TrEMBL record, chain A:
GO terms for cellular component: cytosol; nucleus. GO terms for molecular function: ATP binding; ATP-dependent protein folding chaperone. This is Hsp70 protein-domain-containing protein. Residues 1-24, 131-156 are annotated as: Disordered. InterPro entries: ATPase_NBD, Hsp_70_fam. Residues 14-24 have a biased composition (Low complexity). It comes from Gymnopilus junonius. The lineage of its organism: Eukaryota, Fungi, Dikarya, Basidiomycota, Agaricomycotina. Keywords: ATP-binding, Nucleotide-binding.
UniProtKB/TrEMBL annotation, chain B:
GO terms for cellular component: cytosol. Residues 13-36, 277-302, 327-402 are annotated as: Disordered. Residues 349-379 have a biased composition (Basic and acidic residues). One of its GO terms (molecular function) is ribosome binding. GO terms for biological process: 'de novo' cotranslational protein folding; regulation of translational fidelity. InterPro entries: DnaJ_domain, DnaJ_domain_CS, J_dom_sf, ZUO1-like_ZHD, Zuotin/DnaJC2. SMART domains: DnaJ. Residues 16-32 have a biased composition (Low complexity). Residues 112-196 form the J domain. This is DnaJ domain-containing protein.
Amino acid sequence: MASTPAQNGRADTPSRPAPSSSLPPVVGINFGNSYASIAEGLAESIANEDGERQIACAISFHGEEMYIGNQAKQQLVKNSKNTITGFRNLLGKKFSEIPQSEHISSAPVIQHPDLPDTAAYKVQVLQPAPSPLPPASNIGTPAASHAPTPRSEPTPTERILTVSEVTSIFLKSLVQSAEDFLGKAIQGAVITVPATFTDAQRAALQKAASDAGINVLQLLDDAAAAAATTTTPLWTGENLRPDRTQLLVDVGCSAVSLTLLSVREGLSYILASSSIPDIGADKIDDKLIKFFATDFTKKTKIPLTVCPAPANSPADQRAEAKLRLAIEHTKRTISASPGAATCSVESLKEGMDYTGSVNRMRFDMLASPIYASVASEVVKLLASAAVDSHDVDEVVYIGGTGSLPGLDDRLVLEVGLREGVETPFARGTVVGGGVGDPTTILARGCAYQAALIDSLSDSSEEKELKEAFTRGHKASDVKATTKTLGVLFPNSLEGNKELGGTWIPIVYKETALPVRRVVQFDAELTEASKRLAFEVWEVSEGIRVEKIVPPAPSPPSDEDDEELEEIEVKYRVVTKDTLLGAVDTQAKLAVQTKGKSKDAGKWFTTVEVQFVVGIKGDVEVEVSEKGEGGVVERLHVSSL
Amino acid sequence: MAAVQVLPVATPPVPASYKSPSVPSSSRISAPHPSGHRTLLPVGPAYLNHLRLSLHHAHSFSSLDKHLAAERERLAALHGDDVAAEDDLGVGDEKETDELLNLDPKEWKKQDHYAVLGLSHLRYKATADQIKIAHRKKVLKHHPDKKAGTNKDISNSLYLAGINQNTNDDAFFKCIQKAHEVLTNSEKRRQFDSVDPLFLELEEDIPSLTEFKAKNLDFFKTLGPVFELYSRFSNRQPVPGLGHIDSTKAEVEGFYDFWYNFDSWRSFEWLDKEVNEGSDSRDDKRYTEKKNKSERARRKKEDNVKLRGLVDMALGLDPRIKRIKQQEKEAREAKKKGVTPGAPAKKTKQQEEEEKKKAEEEAKKREEEEKVVRAEAKKAKAAAANAAKKARRQARAAEETA
């Protein structure tokens, strides 16, 4: 007892709960420049200790304390000099490469005093005084009391942190949150990385992560992480085929990145991508802050200049910082509900409080220039990939700004997307942290990926597979089809005049080789012959544009003589290119439909068509009737 | 095997005039994008399969299929070990029909508690441990906490507002809890078992005597299960079974003896009408209770009569009884014919009876004789008295005249 005096505030560390069996000990981390999110092995988003699923990428030092996440963001108002934000984009960059004008609202980026050409942050902290030495020996000296000697006052010092160190601290806190949630140690993580990152930046991120004690399973491009989520069985929609052309719209704080993906039964590759650094959610924030600042001036007659706030007016700077924090909430409300959203700031300037509101329409008007530039970039991207806007099957939004319905409306309208295009808004899966929530898509994708890599064993074969998941591995370079293959069932229906039959596409264009597709459908037969015949074709798909003058509304509603504009109507068309084969046979398992439906009395058989396109371009077609003893026909088209 | 896409199409029939075109043998698909033109995103299980295909299986789908099937089997075997490690005492997993899942917890008295817990293959035979395991299994599956996030209609504005719409979500869970409550309480379980819905159903199927004769049913095959069915209600276990055609006389007699004195625990409290808790009227309560009691007694009596009738029927139809009677008769006749000289020491029952009869007859005779003697003695006495009277009268008359 005397030799080990009980220390104050010490308790035995609680034993960790037994690891729950089903969850793999891996996480996915979406590491953005302004916000990060984490998801566990089953791809559910994890909230940190403060209950936030969107964790601000900020670290703030205040006295002896260190704040991480949204608490640190609050420090931007009063303690901006000791608050570090936006550090991810500086990872792996040399000091000389960083433009100096940035980061005026947070801790300044300086040249590291010791390391050459390294960016670092300088923050004021209080260093805790060394704890009093334990008494070397208290034998012989009568112990006056068991209370430990109080510590001395902490001393103010400067602390220099490199960008890599800051990143390590932040990532460590994320993993810590995940460990607290899961109750077991995290053994691996997949982290997102923007497509624009150079190899040096990727290496720097990898190093920062391993410094934080994280075993990085894979660094995943944002687009790949999104694809990982959208190709899971959870991602469902009414018109969502496994083969589709997908447009990813990632509206980040400081940049917009657009990616056009070809998704083919889980395999996906990029058709075209672009990244626009000068538009982003920050621009929307600026507009909104300006709007509220003008409103404040109007209401209180106190002049307030923001975005940018004059350098000589700390009051304006502080007001801007306060508004910037407050509008987070406003934006979320706008995304979630159709009504007006409020913005309240206590003591915005000169002791005056501010409460204002903005409705969706006004907000969309404010953000309109940004929406418009995103839309024009999408148009540019589609043009560069030579993909018609009508061919885009699905739009996926990423990031908090992607939850804004105004952006979706604007894109569908201006880009001219097909009616019935799949968007998370059409499906109604945007808010609520569900699978379609733009703020969690990336983290979920990373978590799926982490669980997948974690499931691979350590045998030599599987190791080879694991290696192939790294970026730029040659196994990911593939050949891909350029035209669509399918079967044509001849008939003379009104709608099928051009082709002369019902066209069923089976292997779509832009599908990686080798490929196998199995499609099942019903074929109607005549009662007399039970003849089953079709042709195998390679076709090219196109878009036919027709200009139609819409019929005038029957009661002329308004008196204005607006000329009725022509409307472009687009149709998907198919032109037959190459006949690859033909089958003419007798069905054996035809069944007559019973009951009272309109098909009653007709004869049907269920046909399964399998296409295998080999790596050299050889095609195997197998047609079989579903069931035992059905007719089976095979076709072969030899390789090029 | 590759995933099969089922398309909601039905192609119209081929016109009779259609002629299959001749295919030029030189036709090929157009050249694919060269390798490297497209770079797959290294994500997802599909990419993993693509890697396996290109790295390990030389682009052969059949080889990959074999590998994946083997892998699945291996995993299934691993999983199977897991299952075997956890002994559920044969509770197993029963299929839950929609009907079952849509039960109304308010109607809990009418539900089949065994079916709700997935024990309908065990029923009254389920042990307390099995009930516990089954309950736990069901709770793990149907606890309302597990269902909180599985709302399908996400686009609904109520959902967006964070209001839980499926308030009826825990209906089946309530049913489970009720079933557990009933089956773990021995008294309640006894009451429920007495009117087990499956038993009632089977009871309906017991053929009547006329049916029996009309359809010429097999005695043992038909009535064996019936008695088996009823044996659950016996306080005395084990219950003797119907047996077979060659059962001994003692067995058959034992069987009928048992069933004529059947000691049943069956009772009918379960079917009681609810005492109206809402009203404070004591009279009301007493009235209902009285009615319930008489109803219970009536049902019990009915049950007893029914069982009695069943045993009577069985006795009447039992081919063994005839056989036994026949055997007895034969034995008797054999006795009569061959009165073996060396056997008098051993008196048969019949002989005993005869002797008894004889003794009785003798006693009767004796009695009758005695009666006659007594009557004669009485007559003599009376005659003597008369004579004495006569003599006295004559003497008096003689005195008067004299």
